[in-house]
Amino acid sequence: MSLTARVRIRVNGELQVTAVPARQLLVSYLRDDLGLTGTKIGCDTTSCGACTVLLNGEAVKSCTVFAAQADGDEVITIEGLAPAGSLHPVQRAFRDEHALQCGYCTPGMVLAVVSLLRELPEASDADIRRGLDGNLCRCTGYTPIIRAVRSLAAGAAHDPG
Amino acid sequence: MTAVGWTGQPVRRVEDAELLTGAGRYLDDIRLPGMLHLAVVRSPVAHALLGGIDTAAAAASPGVRLVLTGADVAGLSRLPVASDSGAQVFGPAVPILASERVRFAGEPVAVVVAESRAAAVDAAELVDVEYQELPAVTDPAAALAGQVVLHGDATDNVMFRWHQASGDVDAAFASAAAIVRADLELPRLAAAPLEPRGCLAAYDAAGDYLTVHASAQDPHRPRRQLAAVFGRTPESIRVIVPNVGGSFGSKSMLAPEAFATVLAALRLGRPVKWVETRSENFLAAYQGRGLRADCELAVAADGRFLALCARLTSDVGAYLYPVSPVPAVHAGTLATGCYDIPAASVEVTGVATNKVPTGPYRGAGRPEGAFIAERLADLTAAELGLDRAEIRRRNLIGPDAMPYRTAVGTTIDSGDFPRLLDRALELLDYDAALAEQRQARDRGEIYGVGMSVFLEPGGMGLWESAAVSVRPGGQVVAAVGSTAHGQGHQTAFAQLLADELGVPPAAIEIRAGDTATVPVGLGTFGSRSAITGGSALILAARELKATAIKLASERSGVPPAELAWRQGKIHGAGPPIDPPELSVTAGELSASAVFRLEQPVYSSGAYAAIVSIDASTGVLRVDRLVAAHDAGKVLNPLIAEGQVTGGTLQGFGEAVSEQVSYDADGQLLTGSFLSYGILSATEAPVLQSEFVEVPSPLNPLGVRGVGETGATGVPAVIASAVTDALSPLGVRHLDPPYTPEVLHAAVAVT
Ligand code: FES
Ligand code: FES
Prior knowledge:
The structure holds two protein chains of two kinds.
Chain A: E1 4-11, E2 14-21, H1 26-33, E3 52-55, E4 58-61, E5 74-76, H2 89-96, H3 106-119, H4 125-131, H5 143-152
Parallel strand pairs in A: 1-5
Antiparallel strand pairs in A: 1-2, 3-4, 3-5
Chain B: H1 16-20, E1 36-42, E2 48-54, H2 56-60, E3 64-69, H3 70-73, E4 88-89, E5 101-102, E6 108-114, H4 117-124, E7 128-133, H5 140-145, E8 158-166, H6 169-175, E9 178-189, E10 198-204, E11 209-214, H7 220-230, E12 237-240, H8 256-268, E13 272-275, H9 278-284, E14 288-299, E15 305-315, H10 325-333, E16 343-351, H11 366-384, H12 388-395, E17 404-405, E18 411-412, H13 417-428, H14 430-442, E19 446-458, E20 463-470, E21 476-480, H15 489-501, E22 508-511, H16 529-556, E23 564-566, E24 569-571, E25 589-596, E26 601-613, E27 620-630, H17 637-656, E28 688-691, H18 709-726, H19 740-749
Helix pairs in contact in B: 10-11, 11-12, 11-18, 13-14, 15-16, 17-18
One FE2/S2 (inorganic) cluster (FES) sits between chains A (100-106, 137-140) and B (194, 246, 486).
């Protein structure tokens, strides 16, 4: 019999009090139980970052965390980043710079950028590249993503290139 | 607003809002009531006879509804091997689930269907399969030698052959001042779209109607495959392609696992979903490249190319998928590159090995063809002591020679290759780069300058269909056979129609990806959508306008010549007429059209690069990477640049890090993102690129394909720069990928 754990998780502002199987990953809880399918799964080795969410404000790969471990935590997924019908500045910058093609890496990439800019509001190009190292994109070549982030980094004007 | 002209503008994509907010629906995001989940039992060994399969424990496992093995699929037609590549094929039909023998590690042997994915995966581990191992052959040369034969009824491992020759090759070689030889190899690559493969099948027994959602490049080819395998009429099958998380050629055909999923849904009468893991994608999705080329180029004393003789060997893998011969044959047709070579003999042999099959991956033969031609150009320059730009200028097909039929039977419609090369070298500042190289070498640095010129035939498949209708209030609905998986068709097609019909793009809805709502089409592959799909849409829109004017004339008595279509309405017969009012069926006015091409449309381009190699670590650094592309008329520069930038990184990955490897027993060594070198943001080179817009004469839009340019030009330019960097050390040629290990060894040996 699989063990279950009772958890209280605030997801996109809404408190969820529920029992989850001990072996259930956070990504599966979000997608399968809550229907928040904006969070993607791209690998089984915690390498791609498609499953990135904000856990207590910080970018975390939700395939590396058991749902039970998130007890008492606050999760923001791509669906909860901006009020319905509007775009967060990072989402807008992605659209303006054509920083997405197939869009599969995009939710995770956007949340990774939100977290990066919170930590380093004046991120340099090198900071941006390093900061996104854990999020793979097979379509864009990263250049437009870096451009989108640069357009938001307050210190961007001082960066060469 | 018609004067504005939407076409050619960097219009932001309409697709994005949904994808950016997590509202996109990819295959695994779709849930149907009563849906079951399928897990696949795969062979752990590369070559074995199948003994007994005991499914009892799996079938009894909690939540399991069905277990299928090879015996259950015996009644189905196998996947057809026929392809329209022009090759002579010998490969036997492809099984859906293995029976009697397994031929690659990862081959599907059984499937388990259960109430939850976890239950299916758990039960799959309980399926007990007896394997009597056989020796495996993984190297194509060894496979050709034929010690181990994969397919019982064959006497060798040859899966297909193709040969093209013209001109007097022997006389050219006899009279040549020099014969330049090259043995080249491009390793197998994983397409690795970020979304793995999957499908969701549902069967309505009452209506005998099958609905299949598939992560695919288009809906129509999968529907044809399903109809053939299950012996059903296409009309009884609906295929829907939802949002697709990338494909790069790797979702051109339905996977064998998808047919098993459909069979399960037919048997159970409940929806069944199969979504593979990343590990399964690496193991069992067909791979790209895997080509060896053994080439000889006959050259005159002045550096003119006289004849090419090339033997290409394609590492087909265990089975010949319908798409398997396509890339290697395509490489054969492009082996003469952009050069005027009067005689050629090119032979392609596809060989069975105990590895997953190969098929199209971004470029699908174009990068291989460019690699062959460009390596030969560089090697000729080295042999004759000529400048590499100069040897190219002496041999490039000139614009006045177009259309040009190559010695391998390809007709290039148009292009200005010398201008593209010159422009790329200008962007690089070639002379300054060479001067800098002399100084760098004096300082003991390893510094290389490279260039490549390449061709990109597009519009493959040569036809596409489209339908356009106008509804009351001016809403336009257009349906087109080609389907997007990241290329931004919705936006680009709406731009085209907005100009043609004089309505804003926001009033246009583009439908694609559903056989129930979209005319029969071919799909998105080989850089064809803008060319054929876009042209078909324009023809349909023109047909619609003509029909509307004819009907308005009949109704009003005003001659057609005095009527005009402006801003979505008919003017000239009193108050402007809303086209739907003219329709007899009322509601909407529609027209459809098919666009056909006589032959592929060629785009072309040139890259130039400066690289340096750190002697102590072997790490390659790209100091400059520039490109000039002739993509014909550019519909949306934002999207076109995106295609180039993305393709460039894939090409760069191919050049410096990507390579599928197997051990001698046929076990995959690169089975995850940890071991297979997809590049990350820290490694992406900065590209400076430019479009030289020469409209194609072959289609009403003047467009050419742009989807494969980066993947095609970049491996060749990096090879050119790396071998140039290493040339003072006596290196003549190196095969990619140029990993730090490879480069460090190359530096250390000398
Ligand atoms: S799915 Fe979590 S890192 Fe790939
Ligand atoms: S946009 Fe396709 S993987 Fe990033």
